């Protein structure tokens, strides 16, 4: 077992000053916070008998570091005893949806308690009470006895305890949390925190609160009325009708919520305070525990064994081994002065250092942005902040040697053979940024392929934390989190015609750029990894986003086969159709012109034909002729703009797919798209180079293009598509009984909606009524206005408004849900999917009404689109393993929003279909069933 390391602690003298003579100080450590941080921060580790111990190791390391840096007269670690507490007696749903701990963590709980005892620290837990209750009770008693208390936790529920004699210490940021920090988070003083929480609720713990009221609104109300009961007694004075109604209808929920969040400061004290006096651990006991669990590095670090050196006094202060220099923090260590590794011996030294560290930053340098075409030029390693190197492999010489291999570098095959065991070592965590790219490059390496694992991806950490808030590129994150401006790619390779490939960059410049990438990646890991748990994004990152890296790597490497002959036939047909459309357009215009020229088209439409609604660009003075302008004119019945739209669609399909696919196919006739994992604001994947997600689904031309995607001989393509998943999530989130009933009964949802909102008998719903209902069902998800709906249905805004009003009248829960989403976005800056992912909404506070309106529509749509994205991602991370375990040979090739495409041996179609359907329909537990439609055929078109 190679032990990993946690991020180094920073100095904390300002947070917890020394204990003065005669002073009493109690430090209460939230044990759960330490446990889960340790478990998720470290790769899997087992002791000699196979027991998982990564959480035990991390907990022991963190607690020993804490003890060596903090002074106190009393200390205790407080643990949760069980999932059920007295709160479940009066509210059974409290924390009911929290998942069980991972199975590999459960056996470690008992060992962690042994670690606490071995370190000489008192521990406290009490059945029926949460650790937070015990912390509240101990803090109350200790302050009453004249002492002061520091609570080591970042849990917001404990902030209600802050006051005279009581502060918190954020264990990640190592900064104190006092009244100003509480006011910044909740908008009230600590004594009012429970009042705010009672109104706002907490979806993570199933605390209901009052629907439609977030933290910001709750704080305003409590600051105005003083407390919950005074507010509820004066709801008649509230001017906003929706807010008043929500408070009146949910008063009892608010009271229950307050009971749920109010900590019991009179809970039992299972460990007497006098037993919490600080004491040094017994060296023999601690050494025995560390040896039994195989923690050799901790034995050395704590000076035990042959070099035992434990001092007694106010706290535990083990010395650092003389051979180890203090590890500088990521924030304090300067960037630069990196090494260029040009010999096997030097590379081995770096590999040994990486193995000892247990965590290594890693990056590749290549000659192409497309991973399937890229050639590995070099790689970089970072073993600690500021400690990084670059290993050139295929740099070319300079001057007369340009084009020849650079003389100062290791043979590529030899270097890859050396680095492969480290990259595949399960006990060393590899930290990358946009790991999928590097994993594909290394998998394609000529020495047989390198399967890098385990991996952390700082890009995906940032994306899990703040999708939609900002970009997730390394340069942007370095500036945001590290205050560091990275060396740019353009500065080392040049731009435009003068750009050179990275293989021609001189080694000094290449080292400065490439090693900095690995260094920055490791520093970002130190900054972002601890945030995940506090932001409740850890499960999303670890169980979904990170697992998608290997899944997408395999999909992109597999690619999908193209029928070149069919593609050629489609190209000929599209060329003929474009020519025919162009002739018709010229006839309608009364003269020939360049159909692809927006300027000439604008002059024809608005100068010569005098069509209404034209607008000139303020910059160029040219008429606007984008799709929205032409669509509006086409709706009004004008033939020329309609035919131009048809021409544009065919021209785009020909250039984007017919021509591009033929060029993109590899020697085996397969094309390999690139799935971007952190580009959209909703969690959806996007596809490029080529984009295989935007092929029209319902047009004849789109079906023809899909006909060119085929299976290998002896196989078929199988398409599995979630049916109306965003509407199902809407029914679940908005809790709409009629829609939930329709989905539960397998009814046609659009016919059911038509019958409900138009008050028709089911048998009286015709195609037109269903079409209208379908348009509004999907339009509602996108925040469509009456004007937009009217344009889609070809009716006036007044009639469209009446339909929307009828819809909301029939399904009032949907309107309430939409208003709450907008309020959440305005008060917090983000909305959440049903699974808890935060989706940040740009421009929600914009003073520009157009931009703000767009942001509000995005806030309405994001949870449903984001929820659907998370459902299919959950399926994607489960399916490859399920297929392998079932002995099936199917390969997942594509994801197109709500659809997955597989290549399946013909003899296994039935078994694969059943397994795929079962997995996809069972990945999420909603109040409506998920439904998956499956088809198969020789081509992608036939599979639909």
UniProtKB/TrEMBL annotation:
Pfam families: 5_3_exonuc (PF01367), 5_3_exonuc_N (PF02739), DNA_pol_A (PF00476), DNA_pol_A_exo1 (PF01612). One of its GO terms (molecular function) is DNA-directed DNA polymerase activity. Coiled coil: none annotated. InterPro entries: 3'-5'_exonuclease_dom, 5-3_exonucl_a-hlix_arch_N, 5-3_exonuclease, DNA-dir_DNA_pol_A_CS, DNA-dir_DNA_pol_A_palm_dom, DNA_polI_H3TH, DNA_polymerase_1, DNA_polymerase_A. PANTHER family: DNA POLYMERASE I, DNA POLYMERASE NU. Belongs to the DNA polymerase type-A family. This is DNA polymerase I. It comes from Falsiroseomonas oleicola. The gene is polA.
């Amino acid at each position: 077992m190679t032990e990993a390391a946690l991020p180094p602690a920073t100095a904390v003298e300002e947070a917890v000053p020394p204990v003065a003579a005669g002073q009493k100080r109690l430090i209460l450590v939230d044990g759960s916070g330490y446990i889960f941080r340790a478990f998720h921060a470290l790769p899997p580790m087992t002791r000699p008998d196979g027991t998982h111990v990564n959480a035990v190791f991390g907990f022991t390391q963190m607690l020993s570091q804490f003890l060596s840096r903090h002074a106190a007269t009393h200390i205790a670690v407080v643990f949760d005893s069980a999932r059920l507490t007295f709160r479940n007696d009066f509210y059974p749903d409290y924390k009911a949806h929290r998942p069980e701990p991972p199975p590999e963590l459960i056996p470690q709980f008992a060992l962690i308690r042994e670690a606490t005892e071995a370190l000489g620290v008192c521990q406290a837990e009490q059945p029926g009470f949460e650790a937070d209750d015990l912390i509240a009770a101990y803090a109350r008693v200790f302050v009453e006895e004249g002492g002061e208390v520091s609570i080591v936790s970042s849990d917001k529920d404990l902030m209600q305890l802050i006051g005279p004699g009581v502060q918190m210490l954020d264990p990640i940021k190592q900064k104190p949390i006092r009244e100003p920090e509480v006011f910044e988070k909740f908008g009230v003083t600590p004594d009012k925190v429970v009042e705010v929480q009672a109104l706002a609720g907490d979806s993570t713990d199933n605390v209901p609160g009052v629907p439609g009221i977030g933290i910001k609104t709750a704080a305003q109300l409590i600051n105005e009325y003083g407390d919950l009961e005074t507010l509820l007694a004066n709801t008649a004075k509230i001017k906003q009708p929706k807010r008043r109604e929500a408070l009146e209808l949910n008063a009892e929920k608010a009271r229950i919520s307050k009971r749920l969040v109010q900590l019991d400061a009179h809970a039992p004290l299972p460990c007497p305070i006098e037993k919490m006096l600080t004491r040094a651990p017994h060296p023999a006991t601690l050494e025995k525990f560390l040896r039994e669990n195989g923690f050799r590095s901790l034995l050395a670090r704590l000076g035990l064994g042959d070099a035992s050196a434990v001092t007694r006094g106010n706290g535990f202060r083990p010395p650092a081994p003389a051979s180890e220099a203090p590890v500088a923090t990521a924030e304090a260590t300067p960037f630069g002065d990196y090494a260029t590794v040009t010999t096997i011996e030097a590379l081995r030294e770096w590999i040994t250092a990486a193995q000892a560290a247990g965590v290594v930053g890693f990056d590749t340098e290549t000659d192409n942005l497309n991973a399937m075409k890229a050639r590995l030029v070099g790689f970089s390693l970072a073993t600690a902040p500021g400690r990084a190197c670059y290993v050139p492999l295929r740099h070319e010489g300079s001057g007369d040697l340009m084009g020849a291999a650079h003389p100062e570098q290791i043979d590529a095959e030899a270097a890859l053979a050396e680095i492969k065991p480290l990259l595949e070592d399960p006990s060393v965590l590899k930290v990358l940024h946009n790991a999928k790219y590097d994993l594909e490059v290394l998998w394609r390496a000529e020495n047989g392929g390198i399967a890098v694992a385990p991996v952390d991806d700082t890009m995906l950490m940032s994306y899990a934390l703040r999708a939609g808030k900002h970009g997730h590129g390394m340069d942007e994150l370095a500036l945001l989190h590290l205050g560091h401006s990275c060396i740019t790619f353009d500065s080392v390779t040049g731009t435009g015609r003068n750009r050179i490939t990275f293989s021609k960059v001189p080694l000094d410049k290449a080292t400065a750029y490439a090693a900095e990438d690995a260094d920055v990646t490791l520093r970002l890991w130190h900054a972002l990894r601890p945030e995940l748990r506090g932001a409740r994004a850890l499960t999303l990152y670890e169980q979904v986003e990170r697992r998608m890296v290997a899944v997408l790597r395999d999909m992109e490497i597999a690619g999908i086969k193209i029928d070149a002959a069919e593609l050629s036939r489609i190209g000929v047909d599209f060329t003929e159709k474009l020519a025919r459309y162009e002739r018709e357009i010229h006839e309608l215009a009364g003269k020939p012109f360049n159909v692809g020229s927006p300027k000439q088209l604008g002059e024809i439409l608005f100068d010569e034909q005098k069509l209404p609604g034209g607008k000139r660009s303020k910059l160029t003075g040219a008429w606007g002729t984008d799709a929205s302008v032409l669509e509006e004119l086409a709706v009004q019945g004008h033939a020329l703009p309609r035919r131009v739209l048809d021409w544009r669609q065919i021209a785009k399909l020909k250039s984007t797919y017919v021509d591009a696919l033929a060029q993109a196919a590899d020697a085996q006739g397969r094309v390999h798209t690139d799935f971007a994992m952190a580009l959209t604001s909703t969690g959806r994947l996007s596809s490029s180079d080529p984009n295989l997600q935007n092929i029209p689904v319902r047009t004849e031309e789109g079906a023809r293009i899909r006909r060119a995607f085929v299976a290998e001989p002896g196989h078929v393509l199988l398409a599995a598509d979630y049916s109306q998943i965003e509407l199902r999530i809407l029914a679940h989130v908005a809790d709409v009984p009629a829609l939930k009933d329709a989905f539960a009964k397998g009814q046609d949802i659009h016919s059911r909606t038509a019958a409900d909102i138009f008050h028709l008998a089911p048998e009286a719903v015709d195609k037109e009524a269903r079409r209208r209902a379908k348009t509004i069902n999907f339009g509602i998800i996108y925040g469509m206005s009456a004007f937009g709906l009217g344009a889609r249905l070809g009716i006036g805004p007044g009639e469209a408004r009446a339909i929307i009003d009828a819809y909301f009248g029939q399904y009032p829960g949907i309107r309430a849900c939409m208003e709450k989403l907008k309020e959440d976005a305005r008060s917090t800056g983000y909305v959440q999917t049903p699974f808890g992912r935060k989706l940040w909404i740009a421009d929600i506070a914009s003073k520009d009404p157009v931009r703000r309106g767009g942001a509000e529509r995005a806030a309405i749509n994001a949870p449903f689109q984001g929820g659907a994205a998370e459902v299919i991602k959950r399926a994607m991370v489960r399916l490859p393993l399920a297929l392998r375990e079932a002995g099936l040979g199917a390969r997942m090739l594509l994801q197109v929003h709500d659809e997955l495409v597989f290549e399946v041996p013909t003899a296994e179609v039935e078994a694969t279909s059943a397994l795929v359907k079962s997995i996809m329909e069972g990945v999420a537990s909603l109040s409506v069933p998920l439904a998956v439609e499956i088809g198969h055929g020789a081509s992608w078109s036939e599979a639909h």
